Amino acid sequence: MADLDAFRQQTRAWLDENCPPSMRKPITKESDQCWGGRNFTFESNDQKLWLDRMAAKGWTAPDWPSEYGGGGLSQEEHKVLREELARISARPALSSFGVWMIGPAILKFGSEELKRQHLPAIVRGEIRWCQGYSEPGAGSDLAGLQTRAVDEGDHFIVNGQKIWTSYADKADWMFCLVRTNPDAKKQLGITLVLFDMATPGVSTKPIKLISGNSPFCESFLDDVRVEKSQVVGEINAGWTIAKYLLTHEREMIGGMGRTASGQKTLSQVAVECIGLDGGKLADDMLRGEIVRWDLDAAAFALTAERVLDEAKSGQGVGAASAMLKYYGTELNKRRQELLVALHGSDGLVWEGEAHREGAIPRNWLRSKGNSIEGGTTEVQLNVISRNILGLQ
Amino acid sequence: MSALVLNEEQQMLKDAAKRFMVESAPVSQLRALRDNNDETGFSRELWQSMVEMGFVGTLVPEQLGGSQFGYVGMGQISEQAGRNLSASPLISTAVGGVAALLLAGSSEQQQALLPKVAAGELLLALAVDETPRHNPVQVSTRLEAQGDGFVLNGRKQFVVDGHVADKLIVSARSSGADSEREGITLLLVDRTAAGVRVERTSMADSRNAAVVTFDDVKVAATDLLGEAGKGFAALELTLDVVNAQLAAELLGLSLESFERTVAYLLERKQFGVTLSTFQGLQHRCAHLFSELELVKSAVLKALMALDAGADDASMQVSLAKAKASEVAELATNEALQMHGGMGMTDEFDIGLFMKRARCVKALFGDFRYHANRFASLKGY
């Protein structure tokens, strides 16, 4: 305990000195978020400074071993760091699929060589990653993917097409599921490989969404050479790693059901938009809908906390990530619907600085994808009913 | 911030309560009480066993004969009682009565009464509501000074275990207008005192409730719980304590009807396959599972907040009771529908869970009451 208190004091002092004041303001637009990578344009010197200082401490990946550039923090220390960052409303120094997804998979399943090659670059925000999972013919049925990798001795030649690749047009490397054995049962012929997006034969094309933005791409792979040293884990054993990564992704997306620190709560927005009458929201019907959401959101946040606490004390419920993903994304969609309703016609203005370039309707439309990406709501319900309840 | 998990002692109490309720107070016992038109509405023998198990004194301080095991501990007992529809005065006496005495009573009153409660020698009942829908500030029952004491006039309903309680804990108005928080007094009245009329009301869940009328009932000054006109704060806290336990009971009965339904789907065959193979049913079960996970968290948090004396305990209790009520309605409705025609029969237990769920929800505030209170406490 005393050690943890000392760690808190040191952390607080370091953050006081090293977190630039402009990095303690809420994120209001896309460019406020730092994704790093070869082609990233920093919005300000402070944004770069904040990334470099945090990366030097390994605190962009606080719980990774320090030998690979991580912070080497214990779970308790990591929690203290999170709390101290939240206390000063610090922006994340780095948003990264490397930190959130492929890094943990390389740590768990990758060779020593892969760890040394990729992890430090992820920590420093030098390489931006994208995920090559879904294909035009393999969405919910992900294991049915058809992108072929033909064995050429020390390397594979990969041909196929990926879709819904987040930010593929901005990414430097891809982690990609490919079929290495077309004759085996579909889950048993899949391999997870890594390659540079600058490799000849790799091209991308952004997909414009109903929100008017293009966070996703189609990616085309034509005779792409991938070295065998860039296989994560064993050849034909990629499905296990893919599932591990999906669990991570579900937890991440499910987390959207919680109100982030620094974000206004729905009821605060409601009071601003509608006003109070006798201490109650001035619109009875909306008040009823807001309360329903608020109760569910409060109980959901407690559930996310309880699942973590149970996992720590070894009584984990296992497939809980499917439940969190299902409920969290549905909650976020309801929240976005209510935000549009609360703002009335202002909530439908599409452009213009006065309306933050249509942030409200665009976020609302983007949220519709929450219950599709990372495994649809229907797939999560399948997982719960089959794996937890044993209904089949 | 303590972790949202049971500690070892609480887990042991949960396991003990589980074994006890299954063996000594199963659903079949409630059925027998109902079918025999039992006048007490519960088994005195069972109550004595609950005393011996220490359940009745869970909230009573150690020096007064209890185990002082706290609200989380009591919640484990309530949850298991919910799973088995165990009929007993736990809620009226061991929870509501004890909480009112602890929160409003003087040390003399506590010393005189709590050891008797823990020993199973005294049954208590809360006489709060005067209207069909819960509204604790709506008090027209009047308490007026007379000589060196008081006189009580009025009518209370949905008084759980009112017809068997030795003493009633009554909210009455000493001053102020109806529906004002100020001016409400808590007091003790002997059920057998002159002018008290108790009429048992037969409820849908086959459990006990009563309408109680007070006609010029004489009350001694020593029977006031706390100061005249200043009782509402203690009453509100007492109701929080009771509602957290009712939420735990709702959780238990919802989980039990859900598990029985899943088991039924795995066994019942139609079209040559078990019902469990139909995705239309699977997804409804998966949704219900998720909702039940939320209720577990909300109930545990409310119990812990009460044990910790947290500032937001009232809000957490209303969250738990609202969510538990909403999901209990869904769970029992889905259970009945998925049992098909069998669910409509009296022979199957599922209907009993549905009936109990509605009564526990209505007692001291349903979903709407607590959702409204939650929003008000959050300032909107």
Account of the 3D structure:
The complex is a heterodimer of chains A (392) and B (380). Helices cover 43% and strands 15% of the residues of chain A. In chain A, strands 1-4-5-8 form a 4-stranded mixed β-sheet. With 380 residues, chain B is α+β, with helices and mostly antiparallel strands. Chain B has 3 domains: 115 residues, Acyl-CoA dehydrogenase/oxidase, N-terminal domain (Butyryl-Coa Dehydrogenase, subunit A, domain 1); 104 residues, Butyryl-CoA Dehydrogenase, subunit A, domain 2 (Beta Barrel); 145 residues, Butyryl-CoA Dehydrogenase, subunit A, domain 3, CATH 1.20.140.10. Chain B has 11 helices and 10 strands. In chain B, helix 1 runs parallel beside helix 4, helix 4 runs antiparallel to helix 8 and helix 5 runs antiparallel to helix 7. Chain B is globular, with a radius of gyration of 21 Å. Chains A and B meet through helix 7, strand 10, helix 8, helix 9 and helix 11 of A and helix 7, helix 8, helix 9 and helix 11 of B.
Helicity level of chain A: 40-55%
The total of beta strands of chain B comes to: 10
- Helix tally of chain A? 11
Please give the oligomerization state of what you see: heterodimer
Number of helices of chain B: 11
Strand order of the largest sheet of chain B: 1-4-5-8
Strand order of the largest sheet of chain A: 1-4-5-8
Strand content of chain A: 5-15%
Biggest interface between chains: A-B, 44 and 37 residues
Catalogue the unreliable spans of chain A. Answer: none
Count structural domains of chain A: 3
CATH topology of the largest domain in chain B: Butyryl-CoA Dehydrogenase, subunit A, domain 3
Unreliable spans of chain B: none
Distance between the termini of chain B: 26 Å
Shape designation of chain A: globular
Alpha-carbon Rg of chain B, integer: 21 Å
Helix and strand content put the structural class of chain B at: alpha+beta
Tell me the CATH superfamily of the largest domain in chain B: Butyryl-CoA Dehydrogenase, subunit A, domain 3
Helix content of chain B: 40-55%
